[in-house]
Amino acid sequence: MSAQTIKMTKVKSAKTPLQKFGTGVAAVLINAVLMIFSISCIFPLVWMFYSSLKLKRQFNADIIGFPKSPTFENYIRVLTNKDYHLTSSMVNSVRVTVISLFFIVLFGFVIGYILARVPFKLNRFLYVLFLMGLLIPVHSLLVPIYVVFNAAGMSNQWYTLIIPYVAFGLPIAVFLVEGFIKAIPVELEEAAAIDGSSFTHTMFNIILPVSRPILTTVAIIQSFSCWNEFSFALVLCSRNVKLQTVPLAMTNFKGQFASDYPKIMAGMLVTMVPIVLLYFIFSKKIIEGMVAGAVKG
Fold first, then answer.
1. What are the residues facing 254 on neighbouring strands?
2. Gap between the Cα atoms of 240 and 73, Å rounded
3. Would you tell me how many other CB atoms lie within 10 Å of the CB of residue 278?
């Protein structure tokens, strides 16, 4: 290519001042839209926080405005009033969430590994069966699960919520783990087998550490689901106040004729702190786990 051709190409590709102005205006508009969207997402949390620093009469007088005399009285009442059962409900939610996550991650890894690596007749059938769990609306099974649990005497027990949480958390866990393990080179396991490694040793001592990113993703996603779940907690554990989880405890803040919204917001923020901190700490792990299977192959 001659020097003249290169020069003409550069001239043709150069933008005119009008084009540069149009590109700059478009970039400003796009950034403005994104900023407005971000503010619309963040503002409700900010509004909840400074509204929780108001008393009820101050909130009713000015819903949007900042508190003139901020007070943490609502937080003190929320944490010390035994009628709200907020502290005990957070302990219950932590217990149910941790135990459910343990079984979801364990069973999800084992089942996902077997479906990804062990060929047998019903392999694809079982895989599709688990995927169907993602398509079935959870609320459509509330009544049959309630009937079965009541008939079996399993409702209103400390372990009641763990069973449906694990059952409905397994499909997404199996789906993610199976896809991730398929992206891991089979040669890794073949080399371990040559060295005399057993099936269980290879699965738990070699593949499990490699699968840590996707297992972390599964654990974080399911922790949000278990912590915020309301329907099963309401149907299966509503009779026993001592077993109330956080979503059920929040219903205690609502009065028959009026509601103390600043106090409700204080309770919501207190119960949100553990799960929000978990998200910010492990947010990068969620993204890494979701894309890890795509880049390993």
1. 259
2. 29
3. 15
Answer yes or no: are the C-beta atoms of 218 and 176 closer than 8 Å: yes
Written as six digits, the tokens of 18 are: 């009008």
Can you read off the two tokens belonging to residue 279?
């998200």
Token pair recorded at residue 230: 């309301």
**H or E element in which residue 243 lies:** none
Which of helix, strand or coil describes residue 43? helix
Which single residue is written with the structure tokens 């979801």?
104
Q: In terms of C-beta density within 10 A (0-12 exposed, 13-18 middle, 19 or more buried), how is residue 154 classed?
A: middle
Please state which of the four CATH numbers 2.60.40.10, 2.120.10.80, 1.10.3720.10, 3.30.70.3490 is assigned to the domain occupying 76-296: 1.10.3720.10
Mean pLDDT by 10 residues, the chain (297 residues): 48 63 79 87 88 88 86 87 83 93 95 91 90 86 91 90 93 92 89 88 90 88 90 87 87 71 88 82 68 50
Q: Residue type for 17, please?
A: P
Ranges in the chain annotated CATH 1.10.3720.10:
76-296
Is residue 67 within 8 Å of 52, Cβ to Cβ? no
Q: Which two tokens stand for residue 281?
A: 């700490």
Q: How many CB atoms lie within 10 A of CB 281?
A: 10
Each residue of 90-117: b (16+ CB within 10 Å) or e? bebbebbbebbbebbbebbbbbbbbbbb
Cα–Cα nearest to 266, from 51, 52, 42, 56:
52
The predicted pLDDT at position 92 comes to 92
Stated as kind and residue range, the H or E segment containing 26 is helix 17-51
pLDDT of residue 25: 77
State residue 92 phi and psi, 5-degree precision: -65, -40
Taking CA atoms, 216 is separated from 46, 102, 109, 209, in Å, by 29, 11, 11, 11
Which amino acid does the sequence have at 189? Answer: E
Q: What is the dihedral of CA 44, 46, 47, 52, to 10 degrees?
A: 120
